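Batch manifest, entry 17 of 40.
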Amino acid sequence: MNGNLKEEERVLKSETVITSIDDIYKRKEEFKSKEINFLFQRLSEKRGATILSFVEKEDTSYAVFLEQKIKYNMTIIDMTYTIQIRNALSSKFKYGGCLWVYPIFDGKTQLGIGEFKIKDIVIKESGLGHGSILMEHFLEFCNKNRVKRIWGEFSFVDNTDERRDIRTAFYNKHGFTIKDDIVEKILY
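Output type: structure tokens
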């Protein structure tokens, strides 16, 4: 970190109280791009999560967070991708859903993770692309870290008639195969 960034950090700390992503959104016009990045970093430290992206499309803003639970020996024990959404009708960001996964280690890849098991995907309002945004971030992480396989088992909720078509289309869209109650994607 150079001297200028330390000075900038001092000024932002003394003048800006970050309590939520809404604070960043409300004040984003006040700051330059690198200052917005600093605010995201400060918020992610406070939340214990990493902000992966902040995207504005038409009248909606999306913020995607990644929270990793790590053991004392620096091993990742689970990861949760969460999406927060703000549209023109609301003044605050609201929970949009999450993708919860945990690793299965093999010691052969960069992180030692051979595969991930999808524990759950919970989306507040389906059909708006929020699940796809989360899955795309997760797949990017897996590809970057050469994870070989992603898989999961469907719950009884996923197998109801009204949900079956939705979940099948979702997983097929992202390159997964479905056999019985198992969804799987082989990456490497």
